[in-house]
Amino acid sequence: MQNSIERVLITEEQIRNRIQELGQQLTADYEGKNPIFVGVLKGVVVFFSDMIRAVPIPSQIDFMAVSSYSGVSSTGVIKMKQDLTADITGRHVVILEDILDSGLTLKHTVEYLKTKNPASVKICTFLDKPEGRKADIEADYVGFTVPNLFVVGYGLDYNEKFRNLPYVGILKPEVYSK
Ligand code: IMP
Ligand code: MG
After folding, report:
1. For ligand 1, is residue 153 a contact (CB within 6 Å)?
2. How far is CA 53 from the centre of its chain?
3. 43 CB less than 6 Å from ligand 1?
4. Quick check: pTM over 0.90?
5. What is the pLDDT of residues 39-79, one digit of tens each?
6. Exposed/middle/buried for 168, CB within 10 Å: 0-12, 13-18, 19+?
7. What is the DSSP string of 6-19?
8. Which of 49, 128, 140, 178 is an S-S bond match for 122, by CB 3.0 to 4.6 Å?
């Protein structure tokens, strides 16, 4: 698996340090608000588990599955595959995402969550790829800004593979042609 990687873009240590910084920001912003962290499955699971442990205040977690992706390019077609289980009415919601690319998935997700009358909805994304943006949406908290390249690892997949790499990397070109 490691020999499919052309180069490492973000190391484990950089990720660890950045999570601590983001955790401190969220802790300061959400102290006393009992936020609910909503993870957008599946890519977020690694970031999600590290992130919630970096915010040592009372909180709740929930998940949604929404998808707009097949292979390496966004289809713009969005499907809700799994809904929330919690009632978010009047709650402070923090959506956690693996990567904000076109923004089509998140735009739809935020609009959907707002129909449930939460007190607030903010977005915390592990990666931001601003050059890919098609929808008018920005994150409130960003781990790292990345160039317009397809990346894998730390939860992000290429056709369901490479999610368990502990760092973020770029695949060798030959991997795509297999
Ligand atoms: P968006 O709707 O284009 O912002 O798509 C967001 C989703 O596409 C993310 O949650 C990822 O699952 C997937 N995605 C976008 N860019 C990449 C990438 O570089 N590597 C892996 N998955 C990606
Ligand atoms: Mg994905």
Report:
1. no
2. 16
3. yes
4. yes
5. 999 999 999 999 999 999 999 999 999 876 555 555 556 67
6. buried
7. EEEEE-HHHHHHHH
8. 140
